[in-house]
Design a protein that fits this description.
Number of domains of chain B: 3
Structural class of chain A: alpha+beta
Number of strands of chain B: 17
Strand order of the largest sheet of chain B: 1-2-3-4-5
Shape of chain B: elongated
Radius of gyration of chain B: 33 Å
Largest sheet of chain A: 2 strands, antiparallel
Number of helices of chain B: 15
Strand order of the largest sheet of chain A: 1-2
Order of helices and strands of chain A: HHEEHHEHE
Number of strands of chain A: 4
Largest sheet of chain B: 5 strands, mixed
Oligomer: heterodimer
Distance between the termini of chain B: 47 Å
Number of helices of chain A: 5
Helix content of chain A: 25-40%
Radius of gyration of chain A: 38 Å
Largest interface: A-B, 62 and 103 residues
Strand content of chain A: 15-25%
Chain lengths: 145, 483
């Protein structure tokens, strides 16, 4: 099946399908499989996508590879940009906040902030009776007679 | 002890009168910081007492009990620990080294006091003395000429500085204990009730910092789980059995006004993270009980506590994961939607999200991307008119020129050299596709599902919204009954 531009798309562009570079025969079936035979992009129906010549250059120069890149991209809902290497699958793994933050920190300072301190009298901190030798007394001090 | 208490309170009143100070009676719930800021604003000396405050607060006290000897039947006085609502006197002061701080005395035996200092304020004063230029950010730093020297200063704050501050001001302020008491061993000692260790990271893009932090919150709502907390504090957390680690393991997002903060607990310690004054990411570890980490409470535990606190801050940032860098997204969105202002005069309007004309332009870009020779003003006009429900002749060339300029200056299209044709850039295609999808398929479709009184098919979003509304109404009704 030779790829061609759908009539709706052709009308929308106001151009003839041959204004676009042809993609090798054989990719049409791949296109059909990849995009379910019809891909809708904002009202323009493309039965199978043709890849313009200059876009093939941008996508690495190999029409077949470029076609596949375009098809993959269409299947995922976007148009490819840049060279082939840019379109390789990107697996986004969560990174640590510290890693991402390092690109955006102008400077950082570590400092002791607020300190709330107890100011107490050690010699007045035990249970007991007032007359013991340790001023107030200590736990277990025997009661006076 | 009554004479001692009366003498101490009388000394405080004499001190207030002698120094012409204001005695503020704090009302319940009154923010003492706000009062202090008012006095601080009018204080011109390098150091001194700003004012004295009085408040009734609960405190641990000693009370005497009459007890009897079981053998002889004779009575004797016995001191027992108790709590009571007693008067406290706050001395809000400004110190040349520490800046603002307060010390408050309980007016009941054994006259325990509390001292509150801020290490960042101390660092500010030391930096100024060392001739380091800086710009303050609340109790931190927004900018600094020499960050390494500033950090070196911050690293030197130790127990000896705090102890010296206390000794200095105990000599200045009224004290329940005399010099003779001190000579025979009645000397105050300092222990740590609460210590905060902060890491302030100043961000390069203030507004994006908030977006970044909100994404951090969204991606780390499980950070308070025991396994994560164990990593943050580098402690083994036991969740079962008789030796389970005490405390509640949870992640709290507390929003004060519009500022959210993330809170994680470990025993009595907490790590808090928030976007400080719209400019910095602040991570603070607060240790409320040094024994949680096997350290005594005395002030000499400060160096190992410091190590623990700062390590916990770093570990939190190392444990928290983020699925993407939202700063990039925020920048890209702003780059398209915000106006561009050049040389303070030339203003190129932004492509506002939600504006029908902007979305018509974006849709047109998606079509024009496929044209190898680009497109002209007229071709764009032909495409835009039906999208806006207008006739082609109603859209003038001037209007299109205005739109073409907007698109070009925002990097969505570029002019093909030596022609009057334009070409959609890679950025233009990416933005147009995504914004169109978001607007048409997400927002418009979602809002239709929510607002349609008679939807043609059941909608999960609509069901969820109605369930939420029902739950909210139930809660409101219950609250009304309870009231």
């Amino acid at each position: 099946m030779k790829p061609h531009i759908g009539t709706d798309a052709g009308a929308l562009y106001g151009r003839q399908p041959d204004a676009f570079a042809e993609v090798r025969a054989g990719q049409g079936s791949a296109a059909g499989a990849a995009v379910g035979g019809e891909q809708q992009i904002v009202g323009a129906k493309l039965e199978v996508l043709d890849v313009p010549g200059d876009r093939i250059d941008e996508l690495g120069g190999d029409p077949e590879a470029a076609g596949l890149v375009v098809l993959r991209a269409l299947a995922s809902g976007c148009w490819p940009c840049g060279g082939l290497s840019d379109r390789s699958p990107v697996v986004t793994l969560p990174r640590t906040v510290a890693d991402v933050l390092s690109d955006h920190v102008v400077f950082e300072v570590e400092c002791i902030d607020r300190m709330y301190l107890n100011v107490w009298m050690p010699r007045l901190a035990a249970v007991g009776w007032p007359g013991s030798s340790s001023a107030i007394g200590a736990t277990g001090t025997p009661p006076p007679h | 002890m009554d004479p001692m208490t009366k003498m101490f309170v009388a000394d405080i009143h004499h001190f207030v009168a002698a120094h012409d100070l204001e005695l503020v009676h704090f009302a319940k719930g009154q923010r003492k910081d706000d009062v202090t800021q008012r006095f601080l604003a009018g204080f011109t000396a390098e150091e001194g007492v700003l004012y004295v405050g009085r408040a009734q607060e609960k405190a641990g006290v000693w009370r005497t009990q009459r007890r009897y000897n079981p053998a002889t039947g004779g009575s004797y006085a016995w001191l027992v620990r108790s709590s009571a609502l007693i008067n406290h006197f706050y001395f809000y002061c400004l110190d040349a080294d520490f800046g603002p701080f307060f010390i408050k005395f309980g007016t009941y035996f054994p006259y325990t006091a509390k001292l509150c200092v801020n290490g960042n304020e101390w660092a500010k004063r030391q930096a100024a003395r060392a001739g380091i230029g800086f710009q303050a950010l609340d109790n931190g730093f927004a900018a600094c000429d020499d960050v390494d020297r500033l950090q070196a200063i911050c690293d030197t704050l130790g127990p000896e500085h705090i102890d010296a501050l206390l000794r200095k001001w105990l000599k200045i302020l009224p004290s329940p204990f005399t010099g003779e008491d001190e000579a025979v061993g009645y000397r105050y000692r300092v222990s740590i009730l609460q210590a905060e260790f902060s890491l302030t990271q100043m961000l390069d893009r203030p507004v994006a910092g908030r977006v970044f932090f909100e994404q951090v919150i969204r991606d780390n709502l499980d950070i308070g789980r025991p396994d994560q907390v164990g990593l943050v504090f580098d402690r083994r957390v036991i969740t079962r059995g008789p030796r389970r680690t005490p405390g509640t393991f949870r992640t709290r997002v507390i929003t004060d006004g519009v500022t959210p903060s993330l809170h994680v607990d470990y025993k009595h310690a907490k790590v808090k993270q928030y976007h400080k004054q719209g400019r910095a990411l602040r991570t603070e570890t607060t240790i409320n009980d040094t024994r949680d980490f096997g350290l005594p409470k005395r002030l000499t535990s400060l160096p190992p506590l410091r190590q623990l606190g700062f390590t916990a801050n770093r570990r939190l940032l190392g444990v928290q994961r983020i699925s993407h860098n939202p700063v990039r997204g925020a920048e890209a969105f702003t780059a398209v939607t915000a106006p561009i202002v050049r040389a303070g005069r030339e203003r190129i309007p932004g492509l506002r999200f939600g504006d029908p004309r902007v979305h018509a332009l974006l849709q047109a870009l998606l079509v024009h991307r496929l044209l190898p020779r680009g497109f002209t003003n007229r071709e764009l006009r032909t495409l835009i008119a039906p999208l806006l429900g207008q006739r082609v002749e109603d859209i003038t060339a001037g209007k299109m020129t205005y739109d073409l300029r907007r698109l070009r200056e925002h990097g969505l299209i570029q002019r093909i050299p030596k022609t009057h044709r334009y070409r959609v850039t890679d950025t233009g295609l990416q933005h147009a596709l995504f914004l169109t999808h978001a607007h048409d398929h997400l927002l418009r479709a979602g809002l239709a599902e929510l607002t349609d009184p008679d939807p043609p098919i059941p909608s999960q979003l609509r069901s969820a919204a109605r369930t939420y509304q029902q739950a909210f109404d139930d809660l409101t009704a219950r609250s009304g009954l309870a009231a």
